[in-house]
């Protein structure tokens, strides 16, 4: 038997619940359809819903048909409860979007349509209230195809006309129509499943007109997924029954689930849980039947699970993406005097489990609990829930706008955390993202530079909480954050160290950035008598809003547009007043845009980011065995890693090239960093032996040179070959095409350097990933070229040589060219001078100019 989960969605008052009742009645599930206005709707089971006459909570009904079993999910239509509707979309096989024949496409209709498309839900349309004056079939179809998207087709058309309409939507369907004169049912089903065809049915749910046609269309055309054999399920709702038992509402998306099965998951806070599914309930309206086993495609409720959350994936199922709809108002919860605050918070937390977007917080400044809400109706419903379920009277303070912050241009943030016996450094690239994208996190760091576990930990810390901005302390959003560099210590790094370094890096970047304050905006639809149109347009302009050219509908004018939530809050009452009750305002949250009065808001909030001790931007470095705080303005100069990001449109340099050789691990190469590296080394391994303070004894003078074919000179220069190749842009570009050519080019450059400076120059190329490599040493143009053997890295080889040189050649100057942070630390302990690849590039440029000057002078003398 096919199992089909169908969601019913609509703008409020379009007749969605009435249609659900009609479907259940015509399908034989009800003896009599209920009515919202009579308070006897089968799916409005909550007392509050019956009292207010609106759907607040998504409800389920099972409708057996001859060839399929439909599970209807009736969702709230009011914009304040749109998040409840959004949560159901992840478990739908298809949806029915209900449109009012007299109202057409309304503001919330557009919001629901965008959500349906984002979740790729095949959609049928029922245009309701066609029995009322003003209902216009052709006008509604035109609105659907122009305001939403193309593909809405009237399925009540004669067969030949319907076939022509479908053929025009797809090339394959058109070819089939040309060849055969028709479009097959299989092709039509494919168009519906791929969201290119949206069947439209017209009628009156109250009068049961067009309901049979819709029901037949769903049974005939609704796509049925193919489920995997292994268990998977999606949590879309959490609620409690009348006895207070916690219910986890799921759809089984693979295999099956038996009662008493042990399930595992991860809480919203990231903590693992394992609990038994005590019982399975198949709900239909307010009643349920127990299930021994739920097969794939079944929507049911599970008891015994205390840590699940809406959007969680169980078994094979992944967690759902973050919701697109978010609350725009933050309200303080005011309880009667003497109420235990801990108890109040606990009760609010229970409701937060059912609606995570409540985002219950404790406001230290006011000493009160705070919740996030969509609007006044949700506020009233929440107060009623607190009274009904917990016998607690609460009211709410004035709703404050929930602002957000982002950046206008790229910036690099750096964080260092190094108190005694701790160590972590993190570099982050912050870039502006698209509106509504939230935070997009990624890493551009090779695992050769920083272990993958540390990288994943850094990204987890970025995702684990809402990070405050620096303008008003509002959460940051619409930002791409890329890990560009990171460093750990072999002995002293712990997970909490990277948490500190990560948060400080993010904060330091924000302190430098060009920050933008964002505020929520409404999309609105305003209907007023034509005589009041001028007043309405003036109001929208005064509210810093924007509107489309007005439309005239008889004696009524229609104005659509967008405006800041802060300005439009409470405007519905004004509309009712100046139109004497004849005006109608409907709004839906459009998203976040730059704040229209940012300076005023920032000044009013008075947030000082440098006094926010919970979110420091400064870094902690170690000095003389103790942690020292370095202000964020000065911290970049003291970082141990080099900033490789080139702002101004260029991508950050990749830490690894797409070839098997080891990639560079950069560091800044400055004198200040030498001091920091020395401090690290001395704390771990003891004092550094400074070469310039040591003198060789007569006995030492007679010691042999280190193992190797090279001769003594006053200076030794060791070069980490691949490190330099992948640091110098011209060689890196050449290596991407031909690595051998890049090696030869570097060797020729080094030959010129060696011929000019007369040093012993050794360039080391590692082959530690070359199977069977035995290594080797050769000389070319005065340069010793070393290829390491299998499983031996260049830095290990250089470490060995510098150690031998430190023992036997103490009056010689030994330098190593590398940007490998770990290698720098080791060679520093051998008393060796080190030079970063970039500094050596500058030295090389000077050498080449001096050589050119010598040649020019020589040629001038000869001339």
How would you describe this protein?
By secondary structure, the chain is an alpha+beta fold. The chain folds into 6 domains: 2-221, P-loop containing nucleotide triphosphate hydrolases (Rossmann fold); 232-315, Beta Barrel (Elongation Factor Tu (Ef-tu), domain 3), CATH 2.40.30; 329-402, Alpha-Beta Plaits; 410-512 and 610-638, Ribosomal Protein S5, domain 2; 517-599, Alpha-Beta Plaits; 671-848, Rossmann fold (3-Layer(aba) Sandwich), CATH 3.40.50. The protein has a 7-stranded mixed beta sheet, sandwiched between helices. Strands 14-13-16-9-8-17 form a 6-stranded antiparallel beta sheet, with helices on one face. The radius of gyration is 35 Å and the shape is elongated. The termini are far apart.
Short overview:
The protein has 863 residues and is of the alpha+beta class. The chain folds into 6 domains: 2-221, P-loop containing nucleotide triphosphate hydrolases (Rossmann fold, 3-Layer(aba) Sandwich); 232-315, Translation factors (Elongation Factor Tu (Ef-tu), domain 3, Beta Barrel), CATH 2.40.30.10; 329-402, Alpha-Beta Plaits (2-Layer Sandwich), CATH 3.30.70; 410-512 and 610-638, Ribosomal Protein S5, domain 2; 517-599, Alpha-Beta Plaits, CATH 3.30.70; 671-848, Rossmann fold.
